[in-house]
């Protein structure tokens, strides 16, 4: 697959998802970047903003095996990864696979379950495998987690530990739509009954496993010159010395930012990364990895404001 074909595939996916989800093209692009660079995504937004429908529609257009877990306070690790259960007919233990055995997993309201259960996803997200009773089971090479959380509710939630947040490539905010977009949503779904589904909205599959594998392979051909490497490193290292930040980004974040920038360049049909690719991904890449200092929190500072300052202050290559 050529890079022009990768760009065309990205446009086709965006057009199909738009049939079901109104005005979310930037989010669809970030989902594509994450998929092509092997990352996971955390969606944060209030209820009723189509986070679940977005994930379903995205998986449908790509022909991905879709799985969903509704996280609750009583969910156990075995409910995610599965368990070895004794089969009395065969007198042997057999693996009963959990919902994590899929290609795109929607972890709905992930912050509603205790840390022990959240941690069950860590190995799957990092290694694309799970370990049960000392035996390693491989997941799909395309395994991607799209997790959601509600920023409004404070009771009955368990904030994600920093170690797990660092496994997410992007944290994307899903806000309420504009008035024009909300009018379009009501016009499309107001007269319909039941739960919205991608297929019922005419969303078509535009890719399959071989096409996705070819697109991922094409991304590997995107060049990363030394100047861009230096810019990514300088931007990430600047987070560790900023006065308003108590904790900066890790080397994993720097490597992930460079990898994601290559995928973004491929979706634009380019075989090289430019500084604008890095700048466009900096906020969703860094906002969940940075911790404000106590003084900055008292002053009402936001992480996104600090990231914007860093982008302005760190000199980009010309």
TrEMBL record:
Recorded superkingdom: Bacteria
Coiled coil spans: none
Alphabetical list of Pfam families matching this protein: AAA_3, AAA_lid_2
Domain called AAA+ ATPase: residue spans: 37-178
The keyword NADP is assigned to this record: no
InterPro entries for the chain: AAA+_ATPase (IPR003593), ATPase_AAA-3 (IPR011703), CbbQ/NirQ/NorQ/GpvN (IPR050764), ChlI/MoxR_AAA_lid (IPR041628), P-loop_NTPase (IPR027417)
Entry keyword set: ATP-binding, Nucleotide-binding
Gene Ontology MF terms in the entry: ATP binding; ATP hydrolysis activity
Gene3D superfamilies documented for this protein: Magnesium chelatase subunit I, C-Terminal domain (1.10.8.80), P-loop containing nucleotide triphosphate hydrolases (3.40.50.300)
The family this protein is said to belong to: Belongs to the MoxR family.
Protein's name according to its UniProt entry: Magnesium chelatase
């Amino acid at each position: 697959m050529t890079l022009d074909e990768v760009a065309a595939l990205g446009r086709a996916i965006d057009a199909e998802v738009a049939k079901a989800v109104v005005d979310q093209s930037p989010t669809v692009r970030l989902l594509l970047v994450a998929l092509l660079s092997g990352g996971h995504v955390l969606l944060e937004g209030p209820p009723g903003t189509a986070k679940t429908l977005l994930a379903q529609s995205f998986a449908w257009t790509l022909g991905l095996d879709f799985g969903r877990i509704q996280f609750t306070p009583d969910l156990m690790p075995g409910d995610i990864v599965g368990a070895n259960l004794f089969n009395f007919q065969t007198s042997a233990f057999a693996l009963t696979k959990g919902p994590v055995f899929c290609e795109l997993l929607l972890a709905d309201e992930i912050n509603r379950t205790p840390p022990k259960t959240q941690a069950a996803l860590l190995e799957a997200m990092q290694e694309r495998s799970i370990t049960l009773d000392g035996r390693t089971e491989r997941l799909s090479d395309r395994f991607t987690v799209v997790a959601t959380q509600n920023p409004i509710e404070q009771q009955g939630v368990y904030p994600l530990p920093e170690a797990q947040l660092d496994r997410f490539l992007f944290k994307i905010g899903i806000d309420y739509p504009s008035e024009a977009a909300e009018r379009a949503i009501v016009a499309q779904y107001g007269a319909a009954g039941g739960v919205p589904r991608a297929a019922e909205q005419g969303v078509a599959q535009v890719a399959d496993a071989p096409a996705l594998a070819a697109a991922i392979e094409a991304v590997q051909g995107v060049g990363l010159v030394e100047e861009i490497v230096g810019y990514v490193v300088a931007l990430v290292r600047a987070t560790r010395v900023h006065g308003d930040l108590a904790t900066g980004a890790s080397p994993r974040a720097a490597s992930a930012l460079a990898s994601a920038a290559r995928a973004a360049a491929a979706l634009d049909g380019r075989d090289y990364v430019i500084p604008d690719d890095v700048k466009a991904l900096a906020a969703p890449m860094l906002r969940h990895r940075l911790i404000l200092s106590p003084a900055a929190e008292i002053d009402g500072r936001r992480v996104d404001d600090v990231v914007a300052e860093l982008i302005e202050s760190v000199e980009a290559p010309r």
